């Protein structure tokens, strides 16, 4: 994710924006996350990544 740190949001693809949003949500210290179709814009290879690491 560090490769996205210095990039303007407008230069990110839809999938990259989604990954940043997921990472931000997971970084919050909340007790529950409600995610609806959170893998929609991810590449096929990345769609299982958030699930595998939960």
UniProtKB/TrEMBL annotation:
SUPFAM superfamilies membership: P-loop containing nucleoside triphosphate hydrolases
Residue ranges annotated for the ABC transporter domain, each copy included: 5-39
Pfam name, any one: ABC_tran
Coiled coil: none
GO cellular component: chloroplast envelope
Highest taxon above the source species: Eukaryota
Molecular function per GO: ATP binding; ATP hydrolysis activity
Name of the protein this chain belongs to: ABC transporter domain-containing protein
Organism for this UniProt entry: Gossypium mustelinum
């Amino acid at each position: 994710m560090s490769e996205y740190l210095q990039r303007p949001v407008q230069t990110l693809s839809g999938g990259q924006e989604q990954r940043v949003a997921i990472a931000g949500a997971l970084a919050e210290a909340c007790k529950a996350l409600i995610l609806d179709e959170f893998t929609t814009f991810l590449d096929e290879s990345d769609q299982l990544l958030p699930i595998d690491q939960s």
